[in-house]
Amino acid sequence: MKKEILNALKERISRQNWESWFLDFDIKKIENNHVVFEVGNIFIKDRLEQKFGKTISKVLRDFFGKEYSYEFTYREIKTNDSRDKQEGPLVKKKPLLITPLNPRYTFQNLIVGEFNRFAYNAFLEASKNPGYYNPIFLYSGVGLGKTHLAQALGNYVLETDPDMKVAYLTSEEFMNEMIISIKKGTTEEFREKYRKKADILIIDDIQFLIGKKAAQIELFHTFNAIHEAGKQIIICSDRTPNELKDFHSRMISRFQMGLVVKIEKPSKFDLFKIGKKILELKEAELDDKIIEYLVQVYDTPRVLHGALLKLIAYKNLFGEMNLSIAQSLIPNYRTDSKTLTENIIVILSEIFECSPEEMLSSKRTKNVSFARKIGMYYLSKYLGLSTREIGKIFNKSHSSVVQNLKQIENSIKDNNLAIKNYLKDLDKKTKRFAEGKSV
Ligand code: ADP
Ligand code: MG
Hints:
Helicase, Ruva Protein, domain 3; five-stranded parallel β-sheet; three-stranded mixed β-sheet; 8 strands; binds adenosine-5'-diphosphate
């Protein structure tokens, strides 16, 4: 019955609205003339009543032939910790789908070009013949499709042989699980789980283990056990094996003894095709001119993907999209030839809701001068600019720069979390910008 009610509702709501508001929407229970809906997004939950309250009442009345009341509840996101508890003994699951694979990450959905052909062929081959190249070490800059390719192999293998046990996890998840097992005294089970039961082990983002010796060693043993058993191992990394500084040389040479493959940056032409593919998968349409424009602004699939989602969301909400709207939503930093520093000012002004001009003026409003200080600190500590250079950028005397830096430094020492978070946010956004920009 739940399904019928949802269908009745769907009929009364435009497709656009349905896709924007009801995708993570379900019926939890129906009792005593009352329907409890379940919503996976708390922001959406709070607005559903206002936007669709009347329609929902009417649909329920029509459906049941009398008045039904209803409420929305929020379904909390399952965290990693609760994962274990929820697996009751009766739930029959594939035991080793550690992180469910993203069904969208398939070979079919991957655009192949010069930039990734070699890696693609290696992975396709390996999924037909697991263990043949062992290990496969895949590396590239961020956002170029490593996770997609690695999971495509997992999806392919599971599709062709559902009995195969594929374990995909990031090295961070591996480490966390290891720590939990140490605390709970279940290290043996943890070891068994990967060493004995996985047919294919995919460890993503291995670089996370830099500086984490204990986890490196544990992974090394896991690696050896799986390798000896002739099972497939895949490692993804944002750098070459040799650049995994502080990994033991024995480990590095293990990583190199199979196949080391790289994904390059796609050409503009390939990136365009990737953009088309992303739209196709989202069942969304945008003018080719807009994709061409985005491809000029960005040069990795990940940032392109993010930009497309932003435009699609806008289009769904406001019902229109064209090149000039796209350009205003996604300014072209390149043709504006702004430097990284200038962009940091822009990013800061967005975070602190003031204008870049204000940031560079002598204005002393609280948020403006705070934003300025954070910017100065970032340029100094994260990007290594000298206090003189920073003074020039902000039009401030050398001594006032020094004073500002000290203030922030002291707050950080006092464990001021807000400042730390601002810096983190700024760093993330700056990197994202630099990523899209660098050659
Ligand atoms: P990485 O793991 O290297 O950081 P991801 O695999 O997360 O990169 O890729 C980022 C996004 O770009 C994903 O949404 C992915 O589906 C998409 N993508 C990357 N490469 C391609 C490609 N060749 N064809 C289609 N989509 C791609
Ligand atoms: Mg990745």
